[in-house]
Amino acid sequence: MSAARALRVKLFADGADVADMQALAARPDIQGFTTNPTLMHKAGIRDYRRFAREVLAVVGTKPISFEVFADDFPEMERQAREIATWGPSVYVKIPVTDTAGRPTADLAHRLSHDGVRINVTAVLTVQQVAASAAALAGGAPSLVSIFAGRIADTGRDPVPIVAESVRYLATASPATEVIWASPRELLNIFQADAASCHIITITADILKKWPMVGKDLAALSLDTVRMFRDDAVKAGFHV
């Protein structure tokens, strides 16, 4: 993992498969973890507390973010305060708005200044970063998750947004780190690093591609040609 050692950005594994998380927790280049209700649903998780206990048992002292799932602010706060008690390395994910688009900044401020480590999630704009910074400044150590992959899905380049957010938070809320969330490819790791982003979340599937980093392109071209030829032979194609 020499390429990882040269990076300044921290790698956090994103997922909900406990076996994968256990294997990744043993890797020194993986410095933290994140999960979310969608990943948990896909993994067949039904008991949130049990899942959290299993995950905390395997990730050790590495930071991990668990997300609230309520949509009304009082219940969101109740869940956040309970989740925060699950362990000293736990960050609580609070969506930047509820499903009606109402900002959660006041809730994030209250929780953060009560000592709860907050991860403001589903952030896509610099304006949302600024509102989060105002809420979190002076509170507990916190995170802001910019969904760079979703920004890219709209045809926009997420790098300037991430870079501007990092610069803004450096003065507005120095205890808040930026996460490049929802990556789509290995290239995003190096883009996040170039943007001075603090953290990038990576799925197990993307991490499996790590041996490709720095591979000779001529050799990769040859591998690709051979793959096409082998698959054509296996298929028994005739023209």
CATH class: Alpha Beta
- Rg result: 20 Å
Tally the helices.
12
Main beta sheet strand tally, sense and closure:
8 strands, parallel, barrel
Strand order of the largest sheet: 1-2-3-4-5-6-7-8
The class by helix and strand makeup works out as alpha/beta
Task: Return the string of H and E elements.
Answer: HEHEHHEHEHEHEHHEHEHH
Q: Please provide the count of β strands.
A: 8
Beta percentage is 15-25%
What is CATH's topology name? TIM Barrel
* Oligomer state of the chains in this structure: single chain
Work out the helicity level: 40-55%
* N-to-C span: 45 Å
Q: What do we call the CATH homologous superfamily?
A: Aldolase class I
Low-confidence stretches: none
Count of the domains: 1
CATH level-two architecture: Alpha-Beta Barrel
Rough shape?
A: globular
Could you give a quick summary of the protein structure above?
The protein is an alpha/beta fold and 239 residues long.
How does this model look, in words?
With 239 residues, the protein is an alpha/beta fold. The chain has one domain (2-212): TIM Barrel (Alpha-Beta Barrel), CATH 3.20.20. Helix content is 48%, strand content 18%. It contains 12 helices and 8 strands. It has helices spanning 2-5, 18-25, 37-42, 48-59, 73-84, 105-113, 126-136, 148-153, 158-172, 187-194, 204-207, 217-235; strands at residues 10-14, 30-34, 64-67, 90-95, 118-123, 142-147, 176-181, 199-203. An 8-stranded parallel β-barrel has the order 1-2-3-4-5-6-7-8, surrounded by 7 helices. β3 (64-67), α5 (73-84) and β4 form a beta-alpha-beta unit. α6 packs parallel to α7 (126-136). The longest helix has 19 residues, at 217-235. The N and C termini lie far apart (45 Å). The model has no long low-confidence stretch (mean pLDDT 96).
